[in-house]
Amino acid sequence: MSLLQITNLNLSIHGFDILHDVTLSIEAGEIVAVTGESGSGKSMTALATMQLLPKGASTTGHILLGDKDMTDMSEAGLCKMRGNEMGMVFQEPMTALNPVQTIGAQVAETIRIHDAAISRAAAEEQAAKTLSRVGLPQDRFPLSRYPHELSGGQRQRVVIAMAIALRPRLLIADEPTTALDVTTQAQILDLLKSLAREDGMGLLMITHDLAVVADLADRIIVMRKGKIVEQGATHTLLHNMQHPYSKMLFAAAGHQVALPKAPPPAPLLEVKNLVRDYRLSRKTLFGPAGTFRAIDDVSFALQRGERLGLVGESGCGKSTLTRALLGLEQTQGGSITLAGEPVFTGNAPNLSVRRKMQVVFQDPFGSFNPRHRVDRLITEPFHLLPKPPTGKDRSRAIDEALTAVGLTAKDATKYIHQFSGGQRQRIAIARALIIRPELILFDEAVSALDVSVRAQILDLLADLCGAYDLTYLFISHDLSVVRTVTDRVLVMKSGKIVEQGVTQDVFENPQHTYTQTLIAAAPVLPDIGATA
Prior knowledge:
Blueprint lengths: L3 E10 L2 E11 L4 E5 L6 H9 L6 E9 L2 E2 L5 H7 L4 E4 L3 H4 L6 H12 L5 H14 L18 H13 L5 E5 L7 H18 L2 E5 L3 H7 L2 E6 L2 E7 H6 L4 H10 L13 E13 L11 E13 L3 E5 L6 H8 L7 E6 L2 E2 L1 E2 L2 E2 L1 H4 L2 E4 L13 H5 L12 H14 L16 H13 L5 E5 L7 H18 L3 E4 L3 H7 L2 E6 L2 E7 H6 L4 H9 L11
Parallel strand pairs: 3-8, 3-9, 6-7, 7-8, 13-20, 13-21, 18-19, 19-20
Antiparallel strand pairs: 1-2, 1-4, 4-5, 9-10, 11-12, 11-14, 14-15, 16-17, 21-22
Helix pairs in contact: 4-5, 4-6, 5-6, 6-7, 7-19, 10-16, 14-15, 15-16
C-alpha cells in the first residue's frame, strides 16, 4: 500500500471546477515533485491533501494516507493528523510564523497540541532537538529568538522544524525555496532530502523551479489547468517527454535571450567609494551605540546602453545599494553621479537626476494602487517632470508605453486585478519606460513569475534594449537569469563588491571563492532529451 494515494480527485469552489481527476501516489521515503504554471492546481492539490480547503469547496474522489481516507474524516480527526501524521511547509516563512512568539514556543506548541501529557519543559527540550536537527543548534540559535531576528533561510528552517517535530509520515512543501538565495536554497533542499531519506518520510514538493525538480525528485508530476498531463520517474520524464505542455515548460526554463550589441562605452552611472552605515542599539545603558556597515567602499561604473547584473545572497547589501542609487538612502561616504550630476544635493535627493531613473519591483501587484486604472498607474512618473504632458500628448504617451510592452491601448482603462502576473509586470515596465529614463533598476523583477512568463518578459527586455537603447541594473538571486540578460555582472558579499567582469567570464571562470560557491550552489537544468 502506498503512503499517499489520491484517486480521481475533483475539486470545485462555489461551482467552479479547479481540479479534474487528479490521481497520484507517494511511497514512504519517496520525493515526488508537482510542477506547472500558476493556476495549474499544484497548491490546491496540496491543500486538498491536508483538507485545508476554503468555504464553498466540494470534492469527489479519495485521498488515502495509509488506510485513512481524508475526505471522510471529521475536522477533529483531521486536526489530530495535521502535524502528527502529515506536515506542511509554506512558501513564506514570515507569514507562517507568529511574530510575537519565540521560535522555541512555536515548535513546542506543535508537540504539546498532540501530546497533552507532555510537560512544557519536555516539549521545549524536544523542540530544541528538532531545531538542532534542521541546522539551528541552541548555542547559536536559542529558543528565545524571535522570527524577525533570523534570516529568511533560518525562518524556513523553523517552519520545517514545526512540520517535522512529531516525525510525520508525509511532508508537503509548497514552494519552500522561491524567495531564497541560491546557497540558502541549496541548504534547504539538502535538508528536505535528508529528512525524507532518514525518516522514510514521503515528500510532496510543489514548485515551479524546474532545475530544483530535476535535481531533487524521484518522480515528477506535471499539471496544467487542474489536470495531470504527464508523470513519471524523473530521469525517464526528462529524457522522454510526451506531452507538448511538458516540453514547452522545460524549454522555457532554459530559455536564452539574444541581447543586441551594446553601444561604445560612455559613462552614465558612476559610484565611487560608497559607504552606508546603520546605527545599532546600545548594548549597555551608557555605552556607545554600535554601527553596521551595509555598504563598504563600493565602486563601479555603468556605461550607456550597458546591461549590468548585481548578484549576492540576502543581506549582502543589494537592496541598500539600490535605494542609495535611487536617492532614497542617505550615505555616509563616497559619491553617486548620473551623467555627471550627483544623485544627492547635500542631504536631499537631486530631483533633476531622480527623474532620469526608474525602478521595476519584484511584486507588480504590491507596487500598484488597486483602486486606480492602468492609465493613471503608469503615468505616476509624470510628477517628476517640470511640464508633464496633458490631453492628447498624455494619451499618446500611454498608448506608446503599453504597446511597447506588448499590451494594447484598450488596457489603459482596466484595473490591475484584471491582469495576470506577467501582464502586471509588463505594466510595471511600461510605467518605468513612460518618461524615457536614462537608467532602469530591475529589483528581482522576474523571480516570482512562472518559467514561460519569465521567458516572455526576458524576451521583452531584449526587444526594448533594441528599441529604446535601455541601460539597466538587473538585481537578482537567480543566476541563470542574470547570465542571459546582462553584459557585465557584479558579485556582492557583506557590503563589498568581491568580483566583477564580463558576465560570461565570471560565470565560466569565477576567481573569488564566494562567486565559486554561488555558482556551485545554483541548481542546473539538465540537457533535456539527452540519454544517460
